[in-house]
Structure prediction request, 253 residues.
Amino acid sequence: MKNQMNKIWLTTLLLTGAYAANAQEITPPPAPAPGKPELLASGQQKLPRPPKHGQRPGDDKGPQAEEALKLTTVKGIVAGSIANDRFEYNGLSVKTNSGTIAVMFPPHLGEQIFARAKNGTAVTITGFERTNPESKKEFRLVSLDANGSTIADAPPLSPHVPTAQQQKNITATVKELNYSPNKDVNGFTLSSGERIGIPPHIARQLNSQLKAGEKVTVNGFLEPKRPGVVYSQSITMIRAQTLTIKGQAYLVR
Prediction:
C-alpha cells in the first residue's frame, strides 16, 4: 500500500513539472513569407524602386560622379596680379593673342607663382573655364610653365598650429564694412587698421548697428599667415569672439 502511494505521488510530481516547463516555453511568431511586405509602425514597408531604363540595380545609389572637365592650354604674358577680399593674391592677368584673361589659382600657390611668373614673363597655362560667384567667366589654373619650371595645383601644406592663439582686444571706430564675393558682409576694417572677420549671419543680425563711424570693442584672436600665401597689403587680421557696441556685448560664433 505504501509503495503504491509513493508511485502515485511521484507520477503527480512529474506531470506537474512537465506542465510547468511547457507553460514557461514561449512559441516565437512565424517568420514573414519571403517577398511579402510587412506593416511597420509608420506604415507599409516600401518595396525597392525598380531601376530606370538602361540602369542596373544600384546605379542610382551614392554620390553622383562629377563631369570630366575639359582642359585647355593658353599662352601669354603676365600683365598683372589679382587679390581676393582677404588681400591674398589668387590670380594673374595674362595677355594672350585673343585678349587679356584672368587666371585664378589657390592662394597657397602664391609664393611659388610670383617667384617664377613676374610681370612680363611668358607663361603657358593649362586649366579650365568656370563661372565665379560673381557670374563672371574665369580660367582656373591646373599647371603653369614659366622659365623652364612647372607649378602644379597641389593641396596646401598643413599650417603650423601655435600652442596658444594670440588674443587681441581693440577699441576703435568702424572704417568700412568688408564683403565676400557673394556680396555678404563678412567683417569690417577698424580706423586703427585691423581687419575684423565675423560670420555673415552675425553681420545680418547687427546690420542696423554695425556701420561706418560706429565705435566698437573687439575681442578675438589673431589669424596667422597661411603657408605659401602672398598678401597684397600688410594687415592684421582678427577673428572676432565678442563685439561690444553701445555698451552691449555680443558673442560671435
